[in-house]
Write a structure and sequence with these properties.
The chain is an alpha+beta fold and 136 residues long. The chain has two helices and nine strands; from the N terminus they run βαβββββαβββ. The strands form two sheets. The protein has a five-stranded mixed beta sheet, with helices on one face. It starts with a strand and ends in a 6-residue tail after the last strand.
Length: 136
């Protein structure tokens, strides 16, 4: 998944702390031009994109999320959700996101039925961590 935000500087440290907690421990950098083409960053074109990846396992899909700076971007009503395996992970991460600078932290009203915590990153992007149960 790739998402765009107004200021990478405002959120990079936040995601540096959060993404490893979600299993995305490998970080890479890129420069994405106005046409959307990916390049290796350089002195002329410093990075404006960071990606967080799982450790690559041959033959398995690699999950990742990327954040690209776009000064024209404004927060939207879209919410990015991350699924964790256990309810205990939601509880632990609720406390962790508070420590690393999340804002507007709310726990799902019916936590028993839908264990989730909602919050925004320092730039206002809406996020969710949930432990969705498989449908019977």
């Amino acid at each position: 998944m790739r998402t765009f935000g107004f200021s990478l500087a405002a959120v990079e440290a936040f995601y540096d702390a959060l993404m490893p907690e979600l299993g995305l421990r490998v970080k890479s950098y890129g420069y994405v031009d106005l046409s959307g083409n990916w390049h290796t960053p350089s002195d002329e074109h410093p990075y404006n994109t960071v990606e967080y990846h799982e450790t690559l396992v041959p033959g398995e899909p690699e999950h990742f999320i990327g954040f690209t700076e776009d000064r024209a971007m404004r927060s939207t009503s879209t919410r990015i959700a991350f699924r964790v395996p256990r309810v205990a992970d939601v509880v632990r991460l609720r406390d962790r996101v508070r420590e690393i600078g999340a804002r507007a932290i709310e726990v799902e009203d019916d936590f028993e039925a839908y264990p989730a915590v909602f919050f925004t990153d320092p730039a206002g992007t809406a996020l969710e961590i949930c432990a969705r149960r498989p449908k019977s």
